Amino acid sequence: MADIKAIAEQLVGLTVKEVNELLDELKETHGIEPAAAAAIVAGPMDGESEEAAEQTEFDVVLISAGGSKLQIVKLVKDLAGVGLKDAKEIVDAAPKTLKEKVSKEEADALKTQLEELGAEVEIK
Q1: Burial label, 8 (beta-carbon count in 10 A; 0-12, 13-18, 19+)
Q2: All structural domains of the chain
Q3: Per the count of CB atoms within 10 A, which of 34, 41, 57, 106 is most buried?
Q4: Taking the CA atoms of the chain, what radius of gyration do you get in angstroms?
């Protein structure tokens, strides 16, 4: 059997032109048409991997209010800066985004406050 690590090293070192030649060879000689292989071997476009790795804005999503709904409504009112009626509507409509595009620290703080009262919260 072939040395997989050696093959992987060779594939990583291929240029775009060489990848296209490899794809043509696989298709013509073996009848294999690896449509997504070119994108995988070529790697991410400039900046794609950096954007994914450096997320700076997060959304705080209330999944469910849990057992103490009244306490969650009051906290959502304060956190979201809305009236009591609007806060109740947000809690009743869970899953619902409470805050959008906040820092990681703020998202974690909001999540901690809500979870302490029994709510289920997700950060996206």
Answers
A1: exposed
A2: 4-52 (no CATH), 55-123 (3.30.1390.10)
A3: 41
A4: 25
